[in-house]
Amino acid sequence: MALPHDYAGQVCSLARALEIVGERWTLLILRDAFYGVRRFGDFAAHLGIPRAVLSDRLKTLTAAGVLERTPTAQGRDEYRLTTKGESLWPAVRALTAWGDEHYAPDGPRRVLRHAADDAPLDTDGHCTACGAKIPVRDTVVAPGPGLHPATATDPVGAALNHAHRLLKPLHTG
How many structural domains is the chain composed of? Predict the structure, then answer.
């Protein structure tokens, strides 16, 4: 029997949020959107996600106003985080930090840094040098001690072997 897509009888905000972001693959799609991934093919290649599942998740996120789908001059569609989507950054950052703490024996694959002074961010998103709470647009993702660059087999993974400001389009060729 398939699981339902909603939490019938649950009236809390967490249940409503999970209806949008709680399905398998959704948070990884959002993580990649924060990294600057915008094209369907790049999401598919980097995540190794079945195309039908990716299409379904992108439709759900777009319908919910988390992502917007925009055509480009080259005739391709791109997916960009909306303001509503960007407001998910603290949750994505916190889950990543939790995973790094408990499931990254070689250290985090990627670290977050303050774009202004290149200092690392703590697990709460504060700059370790200046102490400021750093917004997503001023955050850089950079290779961490647990990253093994030779394992990147797709253009997104290869591009993320270099420091990159979050939300800026990731150029994959």
Answer: 2
| CATH number reported for the structural domain that contains residue 36 in this entry | 1.10.10.10
Which of 37-76 are b and which e, b meaning 16 or more Cβ less than 10 Å from the residue's Cβ?
Answer: bbbbebbbbbbebeeebbeebbebbeeeebbeeeeeeeee
Residues 79 and 133 reside in one and the same domain: no
Q: Classify residue 15 by burial, with Cβ atoms within 10 Å: 0-12, 13-18, 19+.
A: middle
pLDDT tens for each residue of the chain, 173 residues long:
455 566 667 778 998 899 999 999 999 999 999 999 999 999 999 999 999 999 999 999 999 999 999 998 888 899 999 999 999 999 999 999 999 999 999 999 999 999 999 999 999 999 999 999 999 999 999 999 999 877 778 999 999 999 999 999 987 76
Domain termination site, one of 85, 113, 130: 85
Judgement on whether residues 160 and 129 belong to the same structural domain of the protein:
yes
pTM exceeding 0.70: yes
Name the residue range of residue 30's domain.
13-85
